[in-house]
Amino acid sequence: MRFETAALHGAQVIEQDTLSRAIPIHRTTAYLFKSTEHAANLFSLKEMGNIYTRIGNPTQNILEERIAMLEGGAAALALASGTSAIFYSIINICEAGDEVVAANNLYGGTYSQFDSILPQLGIKVHLVDPTDPENFQKAITEKTKALYCETIGNPGLTMTDIEAVGKIAQANNLPLIVDSTFTPPCIFRPLEHGANIVIHSLTKWIGGHGTVIGGIVTDGGTFDWTDPKFTLFNTPDTSYHGLRYAHDLGEMNTIAFALRMRLVPLRNLGACISPDNCWAFLQGIETLSLRMERHSANGLAVAKFLDKHDQVDWVNYPGLEKGNNYKTASHYLKNGFGGMIAFGVKGGRDGGKNVIESLKLISHLANVGDAKSLAIHPASTTHSQLSTKQLQESGISDSMIRLSVGIEHIDDIVADLEQALKKVES
Ligand SMILES: *Cc1c(COP(=O)(O)O)cnc(C)c1O
C-alpha cells in the first residue's frame, strides 16, 4: 500500500463479529483471560495479547501499527503526549550518570525537560548548535548514550542535516532520536535518513484539528542494543523475570527499544493514551497527506507574500529560496515544506504586538498544526519574562511572530495578514 492508502487502511483487520467498517473504540480497562495458562503466557510474553489498557489497547494497537507503517519503522508506542514520548525515549536508554547530546534549537518544553529536569535525575544533556553537525561529535563523551534533534528547529525553522548527524551517531554506535513533529511522515521519514527512533507530538499535524493531546515513538528496529554500554538492555531486569531486552526477546529483539518502553516506563510510570484519543488520531491520519499538501502550499504562498511586504523585516520559511537552510530543506523535503513560518515586523516589540492583536481570522494561541491558522508573538507571551538581550540570545527577536499556516483559502489568510500589517504602518 502506498502512503495515502495505508493512511486509510493500514493495520486494520475488520472485526468478524461486528463487521464494523470504521475502527472501533475499545473503551475497556481490562480483558478476560481464557485460562490461567493464557494469563501466565501473556504475563511472560510467551504470547502477545491484551491485559490492561495502561499497557495497550486494540484501538491503540492500530494507531501504533499504522504510524509504524507510514514512518517505515518496525514498531511504535503511543503515549499520553509528545512530552511523555520524549521523556520515555530518554529514560528508556539513560540512567543517572549517562549523557545525551542534543540540538539547542528545541521545542520549549523539550528544552526545559533537557535543561532542568533530566539533570535532576542525573542525566546530563549537552546542548549544541546543530547547524554544524560536527558539534554533535565534539560533545560526545564515553558517557553519551544518545543523540537527539528535531527535523525543523525553533525559532529559526532551520532544517537539521539528519544524514550528517546520523553518520556521527552510527560512527559512535549511538542511537539517533529525531523529533519529527514539524515534518509528518508524508513529507519526511527520518528513519530513511539515518535516524533510529522517531518521535511525534500527535497533537499537531497528525491529529490536525487542535482537539487532542498525544505522542508516539517509532522504533526503526535498526539499532543493535547489545553493546554492554547500554546497561538497561544488557543487564537482567529484576522487575521483569530477569529479562535482558537486547538478548532474550527472540524474534522481537529487533523491537527491543519499543517493547522495553512499553514494559518498563509505560507500564510502571503510566503516561498511557486513552482509546478515544487514539481514535481521534486515526481519524486525523486519514486526511494527513491531503492536509499537508494544503499546509505546505499555503505556507509557501504566505512566506512569499510576507517576504515582499514593506512592513516585514525578515521571513524564515524552509521553502523560501535563500541561504543554507533552503539547501538542506530542499534536499530532504520533496513533498512540501510544511506550514510553519517565523517573521519579524517593523516596529519592534510593539509592532509584533499590534499585528497579533489585529488578526481576525488567524487565532492568537499557543499551538501549532491545527487545520486553522494560528499565530503567537513569543516576546509578549511564551518568552515575555526575557529582556531584549536574553531574547536575542535565544534567537527570538522582539518583533518576531510565529505562524502555523492552516488550510483555509489562501486569499483569506493573506487578507487577514494584510489588514493586520496595515495597522503597523499607521
Ligand atoms: C508540541 C510539541 C511537543 C510536545 O508535544 P505535546 O503533545 O504538546 O506534549 C514536542 N515537540 C515539538 C516539536 C512540538 O511541537
Within the largest sheet, what's the order of strands?
1-7-6-5-4-2-3
H-E order: HHHEHEHEHEHEEEHHHHEHEHEEHEH
CATH superfamily of the largest domain: Type I PLP-dependent aspartate aminotransferase-like (Major domain)
Rg estimate, integer Å: 22 Å
* Total separate domains: 2
CATH level-two architecture of the largest domain: 3-Layer(aba) Sandwich
Portion of residues within helices:
25-40%
How is this structure best summarized?
The chain is of the alpha/beta class and 426 residues long. The chain has helices spanning 3-9, 36-43, 58-71, 82-91, 108-117, 134-139, 162-171, 231-234, 256-269, 275-286, 288-308, 323-332, 348-358, 388-393, 410-425; strands at 75-79, 99-103, 124-128, 144-150, 176-179, 197-201, 215-219, 312-316, 340-345, 363-364, 374-376, 400-404.
Describe the structure.
This protein is α/β, with parallel strands linked by helices and 426 residues long. It has 2 domains: 3-283, 3-Layer(aba) Sandwich (Aspartate Aminotransferase, domain 2); 288-425, Aspartate Aminotransferase, domain 1, CATH 3.90.1150. The chain is built from 15 helices and 12 strands. It has helices at 3-9, 36-43, 58-71, 82-91, 108-117, 134-139, 162-171, 231-234, 256-269, 275-286, 288-308, 323-332, 348-358, 388-393, 410-425, and strands at 75-79, 99-103, 124-128, 144-150, 176-179, 197-201, 215-219, 312-316, 340-345, 363-364, 374-376, 400-404. Strands 1-7-6-5-4-2-3 form a 7-stranded mixed β-sheet, sandwiched between helices. The protein has a 5-stranded mixed β-sheet with strand order 8-9-12-11-10. The longest helix is centred in the last third of the chain and has 21 residues, at 288-308. It is globular, with a radius of gyration of 22 Å. The protein starts with a helix and ends with a helix. The mean pLDDT is 95. Residues 81-83, 107, 109-110, 150, 179, 181-182, 201, 203-204, 213, 215, 368 line the site of pyridoxal-5'-phosphate. Pyridoxal-5'-phosphate is lined by residues 81-83, 107, 109-110, 150, 179, 181-182, 201, 203-204, 213, 215, 368.
